[in-house]
Each structure stands twice: as structure tokens, then as C-alpha cells.
Known about the structure:
CATH topology of chain A: Glutamine Phosphoribosylpyrophosphate, subunit 1, domain 1
Number of strands of chain A: 13
CATH architecture of chain B: 4-Layer Sandwich
Oligomer: heterodimer
CATH superfamily of chain B: Aminohydrolase, N-terminal nucleophile (Ntn) domain
Order of helices and strands of chain A: HEEEEEEEHHEEEEHHHEE
Amino acid sequence: MNHLPQAWGRPRDDVYGAYNPHYLPHSHGGHQAGHPNQHTQSPIVTGTSVLAVKYNSGVVIAADNLASYGSLARFTDVHRLKVFNKKAVVGFGGDVSDMQYLDRLLLSLHVEENYAGSGDVDDKESDVALMSAKNLHTYLSKVMYKRRSEFNPLWNALLVAGLTESNEPFLASADLLGTTFSAPTLATGFGAHLAQPILRRVVPDEEASKALTREKAVEAVKECMKVLFYRDARSMNEYSIAIVDKESGVDLKLDEKLEGQSWAFADRIRGYGTQTA
Amino acid sequence: MLTHIRQTSIGTGYDLSNSVFSPDGRNFQVEYAVKAVENGGTAIGIRCKDGVVLALEKLVTSKLLKKDANKRIATVDRNVGVVYSGLLPDGRHFVSRARDEASSWRSSYKAPIPGSSLANRMGAYVQAYTLYNSVRPFGITGIIGGWDAETELAVDGSVGSGPKVGAGGKKQGVKEGGPFLYMIEPSGLYWGYYGAATGKGRQTAKAELEKLKLDPKNGECISLEEGVKEAARIIYLAHEDSKDKEFELEMTWVSAVGGPTKGRHEEVPKALREEAERLAKKALEGEDEEEEKMEE
């Protein structure tokens, strides 16, 4: 029996030889030459929730402009919605360096798509077969799943919002594990707990989303952004919002501010119980 | 010219292998490749004040070919167009290499490749095919045209705007970018041009290009829309020598970020192209009438 607690429960060195840590990450004594690389273990600079709602002729998606470094609100003008073409917008939550990597990947994909003709955001006349949001989501989910299978995940939660080939509203998520799902309303991170219940009250099912107007959808998303700012300590009051509509294409606003916050009640709150003044 | 080549090359064997110098310092295989180019449909590029136009006389070899399909002018990255004359598959390979160069530039420098660098790399690539007897030279002359952004571009994948104060290592008030046009020959030789022409009708086309006001140093330079109309007219004029054959006009353009294509290489819109073709036909008829008058 060894008197050092860190050795307890481990095979004894004098019986089995020194423990071979080669498969462990570098920080735990592993990673010798000739052995597999160890990769991203945790995110560093991060973005918080992304929310989106499908409505009768499109999708609304929003994310705030903050990139946090732990609890430090480090970068305040980071735009986490990326327009791919006039049919698709991607919202990024999670690690910002991995978001940059994905953004470059999407750019090279867009360049390749462009060889056949323009997929410009404001090119409404073009009849080129564009990569739809659905195609883009499939692509991104394969990238995410491949990376997690290599034990080198892209530390993101993505929402892909836009239109299908037949111009139906499309919304789906993909994350660092390669997990994908779809719903009329979606939110990542904190938003999944705080925004989803509110959004689901407005849009309980696909039918409700088909009846929802653009104005109501935008209003619901803005309301949720406000709730998230109240309660998520990694959020910010400036945000980006994009609307992908089958009639009007993509409308991206990068520097919106939350409106109509209510803090007046705070004046009346004193102490934690019996204090009155 | 042809007899001269015959005199010096036939029987001597200097023209049988690539990369071999003839006694007077020529590479005959490269000169034969130029012959392949001279048989191709006319391709031209015009560098205008606010953009570049590329145009191609696409010979229709069969009525069974679908109209306006089978595009020959290719896009590289998003802001560069390539048109070529000569062997089609060689051109395709050339374009594919140009796309690879552009994307590898992006992965290194996180920004689009400048036209001068692309022309340089493609020139070097084509020239490499004159160096070994295990390969043959390119049977094309390629025209590369595009627009380098004159506005400040964000670094690919950048987030946020960076510091709000200070120059950030940049010089203030430096004008960058603008239109560019390069022509690369089978030898790997390339120059920057105001107007470039290659293929069967190059002589006619060059003569017409020389009449245009294209030098920005002279203070006047034709606009992009004028360029489109001139390009159509020149292609129609260059086609006159092979009048009996059908052809299709293919035309693309690139403008500044503030212009009609927003810095992208795109096909010239159908309406504008048809208008240009109408004017081209009218100009040709006008010329015929003039000739007739002269004869009278």
C-alpha cells in the first residue's frame, strides 16, 4: 500500500511497472512522439445562446454580439450570424476560434459554389441552383460529426436557418457532438432553457409556425433576447438578428440594441428580508 | 514563317521534343502549341475604367448543342474570370490550377489573391510545361481579368472590428486595387494589358482594341458598359472571316464593389448582352454599307 493518495486505486508500479500515460492528454503526462495528437479539450473565447423561429414564409435568427473569455466580457462586437447565401444563415454558439475556422470553411465552400454562378445575397434575379439551408446543414453536421469522431471536436452549437430547395422555411441545429435535430423553434446553450419555453408558448408546433407572421416571429425573438440578457451572465444587450424570407431574401442587422427593459422595480427592493430602508 | 520553320526544323529533330533548344535558341514545341491557339475561337479582354470585360466567340459545332449552355468563361475565386483560346481540356486544366492557387492563397493569407500574383503563379505553372521533354506545353493562351478590391477587406473569418484608434500598421490614404487584365501564352510569357486578344480573329480584334481609349493615364478611358458593347462588336467583327460558321457570344464582366457586379465576376446580364449584340450587328451592317459606298 502506497501512502500517497494519488496512487490509490492504481495498479502498483512495483508489480506492473510504471503507468503508461501515452493515451492521456498532454496535461496529464500523455502525448509522446509517435502517438496520436490530443486536441481541443475546452473552449476559450465563447459566444452564448443563438435563437431562431420559423414563421409562415421564413425564419428569424438572433445572437448577441459578445465573445466572453470566461467571465470576462472580452469582445463586444463579434457578429455570430454568418450569411452563406440568399437562402441560408448560420448562427454560431460556443468557441469563437472554431467559429472562425467554420466561417473560413463556409467561405471556401461559397467560392466553390460560385464557380457555377452567383449566389449573392442581393441577387434576386439569379436562377442558379443555390445551395439551400438544408444542404448547408447536412454539410455542417457531417463536418461536426467527423471532428468529434476524431476526438477533435469543433466546440460549437450551430443553428442553420433559411429555406429548403422548394423555398420552405428550414431550421435545424448541429453541435460539437454531431447531434442534429430540427424544430419550429430552436435555441442553443442558455437559450435552450430560457428562450425555448417562451418561444414554444408562441409556436407550440409546426402548424402554429405556419400561421405565424414575420412581425410576431421577430417580436418573440426580441422578447427572448431580452429575457436572456436579464438572466444569462454571459450575454449582452447588443445583438445581431437576421430574417431569411422567401420573398425578400436575407435581411441581416448587426448592431441592434435591446429595447423596453424593465428595471424600475429594483428601486423598491431593500435587503433580503426584514430590512425596510 | 512556316517555310522558315520547315527549313530549320524538319529532319534536324529539334522540333520533336519539348524543352529542346534549336540551334537558334527556339523551342519549336512551344511554337507548335501557339498554332493550336491560333485555331481557337477569338477570345478578348478589355480593361475599362470601372471594370473588366471578357468575351469569347464560341463556335457552334452542331445544332444539337444546347444554346447558352456549355459555358467556357470560368470564374476563379469570386472576382476573377478566365477566358482562353485553344485546346479546351488544356484550358479546363489551367482554370482548375488557377482555382487551386486562389484557394491556397486564401488559406495562407486569409484574403483573396491579387490579380498580379495569380498571373505570376499561372505564368510560372505554364512555363514549367516547357521545361521537360516528358510533358507538352499548354495548347492555350489564357486571359485573366478581374478586380482587386480597392476598399478595405476584412480578413477571412475575422470577428469584431479590432481597435478603434490608431492606424493598426496601415498607411492612410493609399489607393489599392482596381481592374487587372493579363494574358498568358503557351511559353509562360505574360504581360498586363489594357486590351488583350487571342485566337483566330486576334489580328482584327487587336486592331480594334488599339482604337479604343483604354489608357487611364491619358485621362480618358471607356466605361464598363461601353466596354461590353465594344467587346460584342469586336467579337462580331472578328467573326467576319469565318462568316459561314455559326457562333455564340459569351460575355462576362467584373466591376468594383460599388459597380453593377459588386466586385464579383459574373455573366453579363442577358438584356445588356442582347442590346450589345444588336448594336454590334448594326455596326457591322453600317460598315458594309460604307464599303459599298467606297466601291461606288
